[in-house]
Fold:
Amino acid sequence: MEWSCKCHGCEHQMCTNRVPIFSSLSHEEMDAIQSLIIQRTYNKGEVIIKANEPMHAIFILNEGVVKINKRFQDKEQILYLLTENEFFGETNLFAQTNSNMNVIALTKTVLCTISKADFEKLVYKYPSIGLKMLEEITHRLIKTQQLIENTGFKPIDDRIVEMLKEFAPKYGKSAEKGTLIELPLNREELANYLGLTRETISRKLAKMDKEGLIKIIGHKKILLYHSS
Amino acid sequence: MEWSCKCHGCEHQMCTNRVPIFSSLSHEEMDAIQSLIIQRTYNKGEVIIKANEPMHAIFILNEGVVKINKRFQDKEQILYLLTENEFFGETNLFAQTNSNMNVIALTKTVLCTISKADFEKLVYKYPSIGLKMLEEITHRLIKTQQLIENTGFKPIDDRIVEMLKEFAPKYGKSAEKGTLIELPLNREELANYLGLTRETISRKLAKMDKEGLIKIIGHKKILLYHSS
DNA sequence: CGGGCACTTGATAGTAATCAAGTCCGGTGG
DNA sequence: CCACCGGACTTGATTACTATCAAGTGCCCG
Structure:
């Protein structure tokens, strides 16, 4: 069954139909939620949210890629990379009122937003949304715990491979000998995602290229061989 | 107003009355919940939960201290240290069925448990419990994100001081020149909490003692001076 | 009070950060 | 379409730390 999109200016499938948070709702209920949604577009490089600034909405990514980071003394730590159908702002819905992170558009980005107040009303009206939200936040918690595990346990080389494997399904295309990944981050950002420096990532990638694990193609692509 | 405890063998205030998850409920409702609670006692050093084993309950710490860790190739990473009135098992309520961590009693520990099935029923009956749970899980998520921030940004010395400051209110007693902390962890565990080695922690603490930031008292106590 | 185990201390090596030049990609303009 | 320019990337040399390996020391418990 096809449903038209009531979300203003939206050329895609309904936002609400694409995210797991609302998956348990009927189409009629989703239609009702559509009216609460405000859509906004950001350009590549634009700052969507600044740390320590008030934030009173939940954001669903309709299109594009964003990075979520923290900064401290000219150092950057990238925590998450989110893309279509993922959401952010969850920590501000139920706990804090100010963002504790920055959100930056890495590409042209289209966001659907629902205000905190509206979302809370929804949770009361449809308790199943609250349970779905619990699931989603729990998954993010588990993912964040795994992040700690990785930085604590795994050697750097392994972590780079894991990062590339994480990118593969999202930013890669299947090629003859492996997956051709269109990197969403530059070298410095790759480093900041793993807690390293630009130079170290550069050297490690060069080494892995020499060893035949990957093939570096220009500055923006990496071929990840099947065997890796 | 005083309430007697119906939780079998409990010499304390009602478990349910002490944790924020149930704080919005009336005393009558709490009484009802009491009947769902099973209490169990663990000895120092006992393994409460093993990673990869099924886990179908939420656990509230009534008494004692537990560490929650992950292991990989004889390495240990301690993620959380929980004490009275805190809870664990939340990731298994709404997402996974097997624990992804170990839980070990560091002291004699008394736990109140509510089965996953019972807890889910409670959430449906009292939606406010679900919202409280969202808050609590969100707080744990925020704390976990800060953990990453710390390991990524802060120099080791600062992280040690922060750890001691985190211990101070829970395991410390106010003394003349500062806070006397009864360490809940041995040196190796302190190291595993910060992602370092036994020797490094030992050296750093010795240095900080020499610098007058702290005073090491035997193996189990540290005096954290006010100025730190 | 004595023994064992946790802790400390020392020496060395390995690894990534830092500092410093070069090189090359990729976008722009002719 | 090609040449050029600038910024991103690479590579090299050195330094700084922490892990590792190894040997004492001393606290704490029985």
